[in-house]
Amino acid sequence: MNKHTLLENYIRSHPAEVGKVVDYTPGTDLLYRFDFTAANTELSAEDIEDTSRFSAWITTKLKENNCSYGIGGYMEHRTIYARSAHFNTEDEPRRLHLGVDIWAGAGTPVYAPMSGYVHSFQDNNNHGDYGPTIILQHDVDGLELYSLYGHLSRKDLVVLHTGDSIEKGQQIGTFGNQDENGHWPPHLHFQLMFDMEDLTGDYPGVAKFSEKEKWLKNIPDPNLILRFPNTE
User: Fold this and answer.
1) CB-based contacts of 33, cutoff 8 Å, min separation 6
2) Average model confidence (pLDDT) across the chain
3) CATH second-level architecture of 3-226?
4) Considering the entire predicted model, what is its pTM?
Protein backbone atom coordinates (compact mmCIF):
# COMPACT_ATOMS: atom_id res chain seq x y z
CA MET A 1 0.00 0.00 0.00
CA ASN A 2 1.50 3.37 -0.99
CA LYS A 3 1.91 6.35 1.33
CA HIS A 4 -0.97 8.29 -0.21
CA THR A 5 -3.37 5.44 0.47
CA LEU A 6 -2.04 4.92 4.00
CA LEU A 7 -2.56 8.61 4.80
CA GLU A 8 -6.04 8.68 3.28
CA ASN A 9 -7.08 5.54 5.16
CA TYR A 10 -5.75 6.87 8.46
CA ILE A 11 -7.59 10.18 8.14
CA ARG A 12 -10.80 8.42 7.14
CA SER A 13 -10.62 6.06 10.12
CA HIS A 14 -9.34 8.62 12.66
CA PRO A 15 -11.23 11.86 11.88
CA ALA A 16 -10.89 13.12 15.46
CA GLU A 17 -7.09 13.13 15.11
CA VAL A 18 -7.24 15.84 12.44
CA GLY A 19 -8.19 19.41 13.32
CA LYS A 20 -8.48 22.76 11.60
CA VAL A 21 -5.83 24.82 9.84
CA VAL A 22 -7.95 28.00 9.85
CA ASP A 23 -11.19 28.97 11.59
CA TYR A 24 -13.48 27.51 8.97
CA THR A 25 -16.96 26.30 9.96
CA PRO A 26 -18.58 23.88 7.49
CA GLY A 27 -22.10 24.89 6.58
CA THR A 28 -21.56 28.45 7.77
CA ASP A 29 -18.46 29.80 6.06
CA LEU A 30 -18.48 30.08 2.28
CA LEU A 31 -15.36 29.39 0.24
CA TYR A 32 -14.41 31.03 -3.05
CA ARG A 33 -12.29 28.99 -5.44
CA PHE A 34 -9.68 31.14 -7.14
CA ASP A 35 -8.32 30.15 -10.53
CA PHE A 36 -4.88 31.51 -11.33
CA THR A 37 -4.36 29.60 -14.57
CA ALA A 38 -4.41 31.20 -18.02
CA ALA A 39 -8.21 30.82 -17.89
CA ASN A 40 -8.39 33.79 -15.51
CA THR A 41 -8.68 36.79 -17.83
CA GLU A 42 -9.85 39.22 -15.13
CA LEU A 43 -6.37 39.84 -13.79
CA SER A 44 -3.91 41.68 -16.02
CA ALA A 45 -0.15 41.32 -15.71
CA GLU A 46 -0.12 44.84 -14.25
CA ASP A 47 -2.68 43.86 -11.59
CA ILE A 48 -0.61 40.86 -10.55
CA GLU A 49 2.67 42.77 -10.42
CA ASP A 50 1.17 45.46 -8.19
CA THR A 51 0.62 43.71 -4.86
CA SER A 52 -1.81 46.33 -3.58
CA ARG A 53 -3.99 46.02 -6.70
CA PHE A 54 -3.76 42.24 -6.56
CA SER A 55 -4.79 42.32 -2.87
CA ALA A 56 -7.72 44.62 -3.63
CA TRP A 57 -8.94 42.22 -6.32
CA ILE A 58 -8.77 39.26 -3.90
CA THR A 59 -10.63 41.21 -1.19
CA THR A 60 -13.33 42.34 -3.62
CA LYS A 61 -13.94 38.80 -4.88
CA LEU A 62 -14.34 37.46 -1.36
CA LYS A 63 -16.66 40.31 -0.35
CA GLU A 64 -18.82 40.09 -3.50
CA ASN A 65 -19.35 36.38 -2.93
CA ASN A 66 -19.80 36.62 0.87
CA CYS A 67 -16.91 34.21 1.34
CA SER A 68 -14.81 33.89 4.49
CA TYR A 69 -11.86 32.38 2.60
CA GLY A 70 -10.59 31.88 -0.89
CA ILE A 71 -9.01 28.53 -1.72
CA GLY A 72 -7.33 26.67 -4.53
CA GLY A 73 -4.10 25.86 -6.22
CA TYR A 74 -3.17 22.19 -5.69
CA MET A 75 -1.19 21.09 -8.77
CA GLU A 76 -2.50 24.14 -10.63
CA HIS A 77 -0.59 25.37 -13.68
CA ARG A 78 -0.44 29.06 -12.79
CA THR A 79 0.46 32.12 -14.79
CA ILE A 80 0.84 34.50 -11.83
CA TYR A 81 4.44 33.49 -11.08
CA ALA A 82 5.68 35.51 -14.02
CA ARG A 83 5.59 38.43 -11.53
CA SER A 84 8.75 37.18 -9.83
CA ALA A 85 12.17 36.29 -11.23
CA HIS A 86 12.39 33.80 -8.35
CA PHE A 87 10.39 31.33 -10.46
CA ASN A 88 12.01 31.95 -13.83
CA THR A 89 14.51 29.10 -14.04
CA GLU A 90 16.42 29.08 -17.32
CA ASP A 91 15.30 25.88 -19.05
CA GLU A 92 11.65 25.98 -17.94
CA PRO A 93 9.96 28.52 -15.66
CA ARG A 94 8.34 27.15 -12.51
CA ARG A 95 4.56 27.48 -12.77
CA LEU A 96 3.13 24.33 -11.09
CA HIS A 97 1.69 25.17 -7.66
CA LEU A 98 2.22 22.26 -5.25
CA GLY A 99 0.11 23.24 -2.24
CA VAL A 100 -3.23 24.83 -1.45
CA ASP A 101 -3.55 28.56 -0.88
CA ILE A 102 -6.06 29.89 1.64
CA TRP A 103 -6.80 33.60 1.06
CA ALA A 104 -8.03 35.91 3.82
CA GLY A 105 -6.93 39.03 5.68
CA ALA A 106 -3.57 39.61 7.35
CA GLY A 107 -3.64 38.41 10.95
CA THR A 108 -5.88 35.41 10.22
CA PRO A 109 -4.93 32.66 12.76
CA VAL A 110 -3.22 29.46 11.59
CA TYR A 111 -3.44 26.21 13.57
CA ALA A 112 -1.64 22.87 13.58
CA PRO A 113 -4.17 20.28 12.34
CA MET A 114 -2.28 17.37 13.92
CA SER A 115 0.08 16.90 16.81
CA GLY A 116 3.78 16.80 16.06
CA TYR A 117 6.84 18.97 16.51
CA VAL A 118 8.66 21.82 14.83
CA HIS A 119 10.89 20.37 12.14
CA SER A 120 12.30 23.72 10.99
CA PHE A 121 11.47 27.33 10.19
CA GLN A 122 12.98 30.37 8.49
CA ASP A 123 12.17 33.62 6.72
CA ASN A 124 12.44 32.88 2.99
CA ASN A 125 12.73 36.57 2.22
CA ASN A 126 12.76 36.76 -1.58
CA HIS A 127 10.24 38.60 -3.76
CA GLY A 128 7.51 36.05 -4.48
CA ASP A 129 8.86 33.50 -1.99
CA TYR A 130 7.19 32.13 1.17
CA GLY A 131 8.44 34.78 3.56
CA PRO A 132 8.18 33.42 7.14
CA THR A 133 7.74 29.65 6.95
CA ILE A 134 7.09 26.91 9.51
CA ILE A 135 7.42 23.18 8.84
CA LEU A 136 5.97 20.62 11.26
CA GLN A 137 6.69 16.90 11.41
CA HIS A 138 3.96 14.39 12.27
CA ASP A 139 3.85 10.67 13.00
CA VAL A 140 0.74 9.30 11.29
CA ASP A 141 0.54 5.76 12.66
CA GLY A 142 4.17 5.18 11.74
CA LEU A 143 4.01 7.20 8.52
CA GLU A 144 6.25 10.27 8.45
CA LEU A 145 4.38 13.39 7.27
CA TYR A 146 5.45 17.02 7.09
CA SER A 147 3.19 20.08 6.87
CA LEU A 148 4.39 23.45 5.58
CA TYR A 149 2.90 26.86 6.38
CA GLY A 150 4.15 29.73 4.22
CA HIS A 151 3.50 33.51 4.07
CA LEU A 152 3.22 33.93 7.84
CA SER A 153 4.13 36.89 10.06
CA ARG A 154 7.74 37.38 11.14
CA LYS A 155 6.69 37.55 14.78
CA ASP A 156 5.52 33.93 14.50
CA LEU A 157 9.12 32.74 14.16
CA VAL A 158 10.50 34.57 17.19
CA VAL A 159 9.20 32.14 19.81
CA LEU A 160 9.94 28.91 17.93
CA HIS A 161 12.65 26.32 18.54
CA THR A 162 13.40 23.27 16.45
CA GLY A 163 11.95 20.24 18.19
CA ASP A 164 9.20 22.15 20.02
CA SER A 165 6.20 19.91 20.67
CA ILE A 166 3.03 21.05 18.92
CA GLU A 167 -0.48 19.94 19.87
CA LYS A 168 -3.40 19.49 17.50
CA GLY A 169 -5.36 22.75 17.41
CA GLN A 170 -2.48 24.87 18.71
CA GLN A 171 -2.15 28.23 17.00
CA ILE A 172 1.24 28.39 15.31
CA GLY A 173 0.98 31.64 13.40
CA THR A 174 -0.99 34.24 11.47
CA PHE A 175 -1.24 35.34 7.85
CA GLY A 176 1.47 37.89 7.18
CA ASN A 177 0.99 41.20 5.40
CA GLN A 178 2.46 41.96 2.00
CA ASP A 179 5.51 43.67 3.47
CA GLU A 180 6.68 40.47 5.18
CA ASN A 181 5.06 37.51 3.37
CA GLY A 182 7.06 37.54 0.15
CA HIS A 183 5.09 40.48 -1.29
CA TRP A 184 1.81 38.66 -1.86
CA PRO A 185 -1.79 39.44 -0.94
CA PRO A 186 -2.29 37.90 2.53
CA HIS A 187 -2.78 34.15 2.34
CA LEU A 188 -1.49 30.85 3.68
CA HIS A 189 0.37 28.36 1.52
CA PHE A 190 -0.41 24.96 3.07
CA GLN A 191 1.42 21.91 1.78
CA LEU A 192 2.07 18.30 2.78
CA MET A 193 5.19 16.23 2.07
CA PHE A 194 6.23 12.67 2.87
CA ASP A 195 9.96 13.40 2.45
CA MET A 196 11.76 16.68 3.18
CA GLU A 197 14.75 15.55 1.10
CA ASP A 198 17.16 16.90 3.74
CA LEU A 199 15.82 20.46 3.38
CA THR A 200 15.14 22.70 6.38
CA GLY A 201 12.97 25.79 6.67
CA ASP A 202 11.99 25.56 3.03
CA TYR A 203 10.61 23.14 0.46
CA PRO A 204 9.55 23.88 -3.12
CA GLY A 205 5.98 25.12 -3.39
CA VAL A 206 6.18 25.87 -7.10
CA ALA A 207 7.82 23.52 -9.60
CA LYS A 208 8.23 22.83 -13.30
CA PHE A 209 5.01 21.63 -14.90
CA SER A 210 6.91 18.96 -16.83
CA GLU A 211 7.86 17.33 -13.49
CA LYS A 212 4.29 17.08 -12.16
CA GLU A 213 4.30 13.28 -11.85
CA LYS A 214 7.48 13.36 -9.75
CA TRP A 215 6.03 15.90 -7.31
CA LEU A 216 2.72 14.07 -7.03
CA LYS A 217 4.54 11.10 -5.49
CA ASN A 218 5.83 13.13 -2.55
CA ILE A 219 3.09 15.73 -2.11
CA PRO A 220 -0.40 14.46 -1.20
CA ASP A 221 -3.51 16.57 -1.66
CA PRO A 222 -3.69 19.04 1.28
CA ASN A 223 -7.46 18.75 1.21
CA LEU A 224 -7.11 15.36 2.91
CA ILE A 225 -6.33 17.48 5.98
CA LEU A 226 -8.36 20.60 5.18
CA ARG A 227 -11.51 18.67 4.24
CA PHE A 228 -12.95 21.68 2.44
CA PRO A 229 -16.04 20.93 0.34
CA ASN A 230 -15.82 20.98 -3.43
CA THR A 231 -16.63 24.52 -4.50
CA GLU A 232 -16.45 23.95 -8.25
Assistant:
1) 70, 71, 72, 231, 232
2) 92
3) Distorted Sandwich (2.70)
4) 0.93
